[in-house]
Amino acid sequence: MRIKPYADSPVRGSLQVLADLAVVVWIIAWIVVGRLIHDVLEQTAKLGYGIRDGSSGIASGLRRAGDEAAGVPLVGDRLQSPFSRAGDAAGSLAETGQQFGDRLTWLALPLGVLIAVLPVLAVLAIWAPLRWRFARQAGATAELAVSPAGQSVLALRALATQPVHKLTSISADPVAAWRAGDAAVIDRLAGIEMRRRGVRRRRILARS
Question: Rounded mean pLDDT of 22-48?
């Protein structure tokens, strides 16, 4: 089966090319956005790890200071208590920073992919079937136009799909004319179907 992705009409074909380019730009744009979200989350996760590293150092220093204060005679326990509490608070902050960094690191890839994929799939779900249907139908029409009795088949398609006023503008009784094998009527009916499918009539006739 022949595939014809673009219409022969310059205007229609150009619009199809522009639509395809717009889809490509859309896909690239959302890939860039997804990558940007991924990078931003990873950079933000580093802030959490920075808080972890800084707080861990402070916690260790406070606990050492508390241990040293504990050695002071008579008041060692009282001196140690504030350092211990402050060290525990710094340790809790370090743990929070660790969890924050881990969660953002875990989210960075799936969220970036999700943000990129969903808009792309939404457009492809509409664009791809429409483009494939056009390419398949246009290719089949082009093949019919140069095949034996193809003009008659295209004319029959026009009879089945075109509005009555358009058919009667060609012939008062287009069905009877088609049955009688009226070449002029069949040619005009086939031309309507070919234009509808994006196939230029003169180009196809030149190939036959």
Answer: 94
